[in-house]
# Entry
Amino acid sequence: MPAIQDIFQTCTQIKFNKATLEHIYQEVTGICTKEVVKQKDIREIEPMMFDQEIKLYDITFNYPEREEKVLEKVSLTIRKNQRIGIVGATGAGKTTLVDILLGLFIPGQGQITVDGVPIEAENVRSWQRIIGYVPQQIYLSDDTIIGNIAFGIPENQIDMEKIKKAATIARLDDFIERLPEKYHTVVGERGVKLSGGQMQRVGIARAVYHDPQVLILDEATSALDNITEQEFMEALEAAAEVKTLIIIAHRINTVRNCDIIIMLENGRVQEQGNYDMLMQCSEKFRTMATAGEKEQHQ
# Structure
């Protein structure tokens, strides 16, 4: 099962970064695929209107040729500019829920609506147009900070004002200004010249470069140490001031300041509320939080 989840997680990253991959392919080969000819660049698609709320109604999902339901009757309401945390043990269905929110998987049952408009095949790319996504593993190329924030965008189309705004939201600007070559600093293959926290901040900056209305983070802090995670969360707090934020996390501490925390177990919503409410009313949540605090102090 873990191997299958890894495969689907990799597919998620490929699908969501499809426009970037197509651009790289064209640069390397000098030709266009048939699919590129047929489809517009996502930047040319009109973004979906989002003024009120995102609703998930009875979302049920199972992977092909598997009877076991990964998600079952999941219903959520996410209001504009809210901070939503989704927690649960490994296998609870968190990453699959992200895939469905990203419009990458179609639920077997149920529906997602944005301001009452159902997300369907005809408008899913319009929905994706307003989403920024930060995965657990941030890929950085052996390029400048500019090139990595505006990853996949032709050099002559990069907007430096947007680069600097994204870096400021990600709390990356002070670090960049201390570098001798500033935004033109080359980060090395896979970002070897940066710390883990700095790489994750580049990931946030990349996600917010296009000014998405919704920012989704999938286990983005699980590989970070406690100090680096604190730096990362400070950057998130800045981003949360102007975005609807959906954080998928294993550690309770990562979602402590969220307006609503959703606790998934075996593909179902077991509990939801803010941190204080869940600590008071949910024994399972308290157990997870206590285990996380012990891990943090080890």
Remarks:
- The CA atoms of residues 42 and 82 lie 25 Å apart.
